[in-house]
TrEMBL record:
This is Isoleucine--tRNA ligase, mitochondrial. Residues 54-712 form the Aminoacyl-tRNA synthetase class Ia domain. Keywords: Aminoacyl-tRNA synthetase, ATP-binding, Ligase, Nucleotide-binding, Protein biosynthesis. The keyword Amino-acid biosynthesis does not apply. One of its GO terms (molecular function) is ATP binding. Belongs to the class-I aminoacyl-tRNA synthetase family. It is found in: Mitochondrion. It is an enzyme of class 6 (ligase). Residues 767-864 form the Methionyl/Valyl/Leucyl/Isoleucyl-tRNA synthetase anticodon-binding domain. GO terms for biological process: isoleucyl-tRNA aminoacylation; mitochondrial translation. One of its GO terms (cellular component) is mitochondrion. InterPro entries: aa-tRNA-synth_I_CS, aa-tRNA-synth_Ia, Anticodon_Ile_BEm, Ile-tRNA-ligase, Ile-tRNA_ligase, M/V/L/I-tRNA-synth_anticd-bd, Rossmann-like_a/b/a_fold, tRNAsynth_Ia_anticodon-bd. It catalyses: tRNA(Ile) + L-isoleucine + ATP = L-isoleucyl-tRNA(Ile) + AMP + diphosphate.
């Protein structure tokens, strides 16, 4: 009988024999690029959301994510993608934690941006030519169309949610709930009407809230120094100055407000001086005297380019406040005496030390004047033009002129033409100035009759509620608190047609004016009429339609309905009414929006929710018990910038569409090497194909970005994202191929997820290292996702895939799973199966389409044996690995990883030197000698305990490793036998003094024709291991 070894050696010597059929090479049909199957998208979005909501599903509790509604007024942009994908990442992670997630998307449908765009679409941007009903109809059509367009786009991004129940602030049910909150606030005394200054947009024709402002850092204004003639002095100054020449010098950046001047402010604790300067006139120099802040003496001399003569050096401000009067030079005949008063906000940091007060055009001015009974006056109309009241007797000079242009120039010309020439100096400055967030045009401050919410009455409760909120990033807490603390009122009325009406009735009085009437009962009546007739009836019914008047007001008086609508921040700020109450905890677990929403939606939601919880005491004021914010966690993200750090805008041409990220068109087109076939035409030549990685590319970009700061996006960033996705696809393709014949139900038992796993003796140290690396990565990624730090989690995952898997574990396994024994292969597959499952779980929240596609290609037995079902649907707990007694523990594994890494780098360095000399190609063509420093054990214990040369050969992907150590001159010793060449590279061992050396030399044995290792006994003969494997398979 012929020995088996002789049979295999004889067969190996035959060139007709091919050993490839005996190898277990990976086989998978998984494609290199993603599928565009609508069925796959539906499965990982709509199907998943419906399944996780089903009552039959066992859960660990509920998770409510409340969607801040985007405006329904335009196409989706990259900011939308950042926002919506972040929300989806959080929701998907919570599903994987066993939670029943509620996420109902919404849209903000009212307000100025939509109204303006709707009017533009009609080709009639002037609303004065249209009825409110026509404006509302056009705005509604635009909003409805935009909602559907945006919804379609969001769903293409694989955003999971209850799309069929999506809310719109223009829906009847929403408007009813909003009016209910407003009614509550009226009943609690939190809504009032007052004539006071508000931000007013002449370009939009409406009042604006602070949240509707932006700021132009380069706004140009004409400033003026004006002298107001003093008409009355205290006795202490009598005889010391010439009152006919004396004026109070003020500085203003808004000369157009001078007709509305009602007082001048000084500070009682400051000192003031009377100075004299010569001014050139047509008849020669004329002395003028000014009251100025003493501390402003030098600065004013420099600004006015003159020298002052001091007439009175130091006058306490307390002697001026309430004792000095002056005349407004723009007042007819200058007969009205106006006071100089004290104001805390006056300082000596700028200007003249005296402040011109126009209580109709400034909130600080209004407050200080109101406390003294000085009424506000604002002779400016809705379009920002002077009214005839601005200059009584000479109205024709400025009436109808826009205050921020011709009107301001006209005021300065009038002052300059006056006999005493009160205009002392004019200067243009560049400064920060508020503009309308929509029209980008300057706003003004103008006193009008408006409805306000009393924030002062609920502020303490709001700040108290924020103490229980988790903020991410932490800085969001101080930012939101500062906005709440700095706010005492909220102007909730707007002078536009497209919105929810403020349900106020106005009674016509005998003198022709109107008195506002609004109570809880009147609002309740109006809500019932709206329920019957629809909200548009507020505008379509006759102005005096009696159906809108409650019975108690039918006393013969004439009432009309108001025309104001609510601030859109009140609309969206009451969206929490959609959520079910959860006793003792906020109605939502998470709110997430851009950082600009600290003064917008976050604040309006907080204030309305606190107002809802407030109660009214016997004194008619509100007090707060234990208050809850509507959110448990508040997350904010930054804005998107181009790759140069610039804000994206159409004018700069640097905008990026989310679809461009998905279709790969922002990256260079792909290049294919294709030979032209006979008869083929050139029709497709020049047609570019891009590296389209689909929605997962958009999602991975978001997940990889540190959204707590402004997020940069450009070609380099997107190229890295696509490269990472390709890496994941290659990794999964290899895993699918290796696991193609794997049966998890066969022994040994596969490693389970979400539980402690013991490393048994049947696995090698390499397997133990792989399991520990997987455990460490799984825990880190899970912790990062739980903390909403997705960029940290995806970075860990990318590093793990590239280094721990591809560059280390997979390389060491290839010989074992392709050519090794069945037992060795099975042991490796068990570990790879756990890696495969955990990798899917870690990627599922970020790349659901990739994970879903991989799962479709997974072997049937792998799918059937999956504990908990498919990835993204099943519960994911961090994979935890422990070690049995006598088996490699975490400390030893960590040391092994460090040692192998250092030794491996040295081996690669020596190999590169050999390749430079063209002495070797692949790593299997060489052997390695590891020379340990003095004192290290010869058996290799100082390197890695329990790892023999064959194991190290697999790690370094070489044909053999020999470990030598002992003598003091070890590093310089020679390898036994003569070698054609040797290359060396040093490295250090942790905890061992001296230097180790990695030597690379040519393999001494012939190449095995099956496994390609240079370990065969003779040419064209199988190595011992391959001989045994082939024999076992026969």
């Amino acid at each position: 009988m012929v020995a088996p070894s002789q049979i295999f050696r004889s067969a190996a010597a035959s060139t007709a024999k091919s050993w490839s059929s005996t190898l277990k090479l990976p086989k998978s049909a998984f494609p290199p690029r993603p599928s565009s199957s609508p069925d796959l998208l539906r499965q990982c979005t709509d199907d998943l959301y419906a399944w996780q909501q089903s009552p039959e599903r066992k859960t660990t509790g509920s998770f409510v994510f409340h969607d801040g509604p985007p405006y329904a007024n335009g196409s989706l942009h990259i900011g939308h993608a950042l926002n919506k994908v972040l929300k989806d990442l959080i929701c998907r992670f919570q599903v994987a934690q066993g939670k029943r997630v509620q996420y109902i998307p919404g849209w903000d449908c009212h307000g100025l941006p939509i109204e303006v765009k709707a009017l533009q679409a009609l080709g009639n941007p002037d609303r004065d030519n249209l009825s409110p009903v026509e404006v509302r109809a056009a705005a509604r059509r635009l909003a409805e169309r935009t909602v559907e367009e945006q919804k379609e786009g969001f769903r293409k991004w694989a955003i999971m949610g209850d799309w069929d129940s999506a809310y719109k602030t223009m829906e009847k049910g929403f408007e009813t709930r909003q009016l209910g909150v407003f009614k509550e606030m009226v009943e609690k005394g939190l809504i009032y009407r007052q004539f006071k200054p508000v931000y007013w947009s002449p370009s939009s024709g409406t009042a604006l809230a602070e949240a509707e402002l932006e700021y132009d850092d380069n706004h140009r204004s004409t400033t003026a120094y004006v002298s107001f003639p003093i008409t009355k002095l205290p006795a202490s100054l009598a005889g010391r100055v010439d009152i006919t020449k004396l004026g109070a010098l003020i500085w203003t950046t808004t000369p157009w407000t001078l007709p509305a001047n009602r007082a001048i402010a000084v500070h009682s604790d400051m000192e003031y001086s009377v100075v004299e300067m010569s001014r050139p006139t047509a008849t020669g120099d004329r002395p003028s005297q000014f009251l100025i802040g003493k501390a402003r003496f030098d600065a004013l001399q420099q600004t006015l380019k003159t020298e002052f003569k001091v007439l009175v050096d130091a006058i306490p401000g307390s002697e001026l406040a309430g004792q000095v009067e002056y005349a407004n030079p723009l007042e007819p005949d200058q007969l009205s005496a106006q006071p100089i008063i004290h104001a805390d906000f006056v300082s000596d940091a700028s200007g003249s030390g005296l402040v011109h007060l126009a209580p109709g055009h400034g909130m600080d001015d209004y407050n200080v004047c109101r406390s003294l009974g000085i009424n506000a006056f604002a002779p400016v109309d809705d379009k920002g033009c002077f009214t005839k009241e601005a200059l009584p007797g000479q109205a024709f000079l400025i009436a109808g002129l826009p205050v921020q242009g011709e009107g301001s120039k006209a005021i300065l010309e009038l002052l300059k033409a006056m006999p005493r020439d009160p205009l002392i100096a004019v200067e243009d400055i560049t400064h920060k100035y508020p503009i309308d967030w929509r029209t980008k045009k300057p706003v003004i401050i103008r006193a009008t009759e408006q409805w306000f919410a009393d924030v002062e009455g609920i502020k303490d409760g709001a700040l108290e509620a924020l103490e229980d909120v988790e903020f991410h990033p932490k800085s969001g807490k101080a930012r939101l608190e500062s906005f709440v603390r700095g706010r005492s009122q909220w102007c909730v009325s707007r002078q536009r047609a497209w919105g929810v009406p403020i349900p106020a009735l106005y009674e016509k009085t005998e003198n022709g004016s109107f008195k506002a009437h609004m109570t809880g009962s009147s609002i309740e009546h109006i809500m019932k009429v709206i329920e019957q007739r629809g909200i548009d009836a507020w505008w379509t019914d006759a102005e005096d339609e009696p159906a809108w008047i409650p019975e108690g007001l039918n006393n013969g008086s004439s009432f009309i309905r108001g025309k104001d609508t609510m601030d859109v921040w009140f609309d969206s700020g009451t969206a929490w009414t959609l959520l079910d109450a959860r006793p003792g905890q906020p109605v939502a677990d998470v709110f997430l929006e851009g950082t600009d929403q600290h003064r917008g939606w976050f604040q309006s939601s907080l204030l309305t929710h606190i107002a809802h919880q407030s109660v009214k005491n016997n004194n008619g004021t509100t007090h707060a018990a234990k208050m809850l914010a509507p959110f448990k966690t508040l997350i904010t993200h930054g804005f998107t910038l181009d790759q140069d750090g610039r804000k994206m805008s159409k004018s700069l041409g640097n905008t990026i569409s989310p679809s461009q990220i998905m279709d790969g068109s922002l990256l260079p087109p792909l290049k294919f090497k294709k030979k032209k076939q006979k008869g083929e035409n050139n029709n497709n030549q020049g047609k570019e194909t891009f590296d389209a990685m689909g929605p997962d590319a958009l999602r991975l970009w978001v997940a990889s970005s540190d959204y707590t700061k402004d997020v940069v996006i450009g070609q380099p960033v997107l190229a890295a994202v696509n490269q990472a996705l390709h890496k994941y696809r290659v990794t999964f393709k290899w895993l699918l191929g290796v696991l193609a014949d794997f049966d998890p139900s066969a022994p040994p038992t596969p490693i389970s997820a979400g539980q402690q796993t013991t490393v048994p003796n049947r696995w090698t140290l390499i397997d133990a290292i792989a399991l520990h690396q997987l455990s460490r990565t799984s825990s880190a990624v899970h912790a990062a996702y739980a903390a909403h730090d997705f960029h940290r989690g995806t970075a860990q995952l990318a590093r793990y895939t590239a280094l721990d898997l591809s560059a280390f574990y997979f390389e060491t396994l290839k010989d074992r799973v392709y050519a090794g024994t069945e037992a060795d292969r099975r042991g490796a597959q068990v570990v790879l199966h756990r890696v495969f499952q955990e990798l899917l779980d870690m990627l599922a929240p970020v790349c659901p389409l990739l994970v879903g596609e991989v799962w479709r290609y997974a072997p049937e037995k792998v799918r059937e044996a999956a504990a908990g079902g498919r990835p993204g649907w099943r519960v994911w707990r961090p994979f935890v690995v422990e070690t049995a007694e006598g088996v490699n523990g975490e400390g030893e594994v960590e040391r092994a990883v460090e040692v192998l890494g250092r030794a491996g780098d040295a081996v690669k360095a020596a190999q590169e030197e050999a390749r430079k000399e063209k002495l070797m190609g692949g790593g299997l063509e060489c052997e390695v000698v590891l020379r340990l420093p003095p004192g290290a054990a010869v058996d290799g214990g100082a390197l890695v305990d329990g790892m023999v040369g064959e194991d190290l050969a697999a790690v370094f992907v070489v044909s053999g490793v020999e470990i030598v150590g002992g003598g003091d001159d070890v590093a310089a010793g020679e390898v036994e036998g003569e070698q054609p060449w040797v290359f060396r590279a040093p490295f250090e061992l942790p905890g061992v003094s001296g230097q180790a050396v990695a030597e690379v030399r040519p393999a001494r044995k012939p190449k095995c024709p099956r496994c390609w290792r240079y370990v065969a006994p003779s040419p064209d003969v199988l190595c011992g291991r391959c001989e045994d494997v082939v024999k076992a398979s026969e």
